[in-house]
Amino acid sequence: MGRLARIGVSIEAGLLKQFDGWVARAGYPTRSEAVKGLVSAALVEKQWAKSDNKVAGAILFVYDHHKRQLVNKMLEVQHNFERVIISVQHIHLDHNNCLEIIAVRGRVREIQALMSGIKRIKGLKHSNLTITATG
Ligand code: NI
User: Does the structure show a pLDDT above 50 at 130?
Assistant: First the structure.
């Protein structure tokens, strides 16, 4: 391990409270360990983005299906990336919210491009990409 450096972070009190809850549930002993874990995960993801490796993974997001423009854009983006999409699972969470899970397989850059397309859609409540190497 290299020399430790200290940083200061400003964060909204409500968000910090949620973060502390997450830190405890994830089993990190301290906030610092949790932040280190998040930073290294982000950097590993960046490394993957540079490579031409084939990976598999899942994209998930939540949205309000009453927003028709959002739904149409989502379908358009997904059809532009049909080569890397293995399956799409749609779950009606409640009256307003839908959860969609897209299983993907392909080159990192293709999957990142799909994720960028999804993130550009206005009105998504949450989106997340998890990728894993296939060897
Ligand atoms: Ni639905």
Answer: yes
Which of 37-46, 84-93, 109-118 reaches the highest mean pLDDT? 84-93
The H or E element spanning position 24 is: helix 13-26
Question: Is this structure's pTM higher than 0.85?
Answer: no
3-state DSSP assignment of residue 93: coil
Ligand 1 is an ion; residues with CB less than 5 A from it: 65, 92, 98
Same domain, 17 and 61: no
Q: Based on the fold, state whether residues 40 and 61 are members of the same structural domain.
A: no
Tell me how far the alpha carbon of residue 127 lies from the centroid of ligand 1, in angstroms. 16
Q: Is residue 123 part of a domain?
A: yes
The CA distance from 6 to 10, in Å, is 14
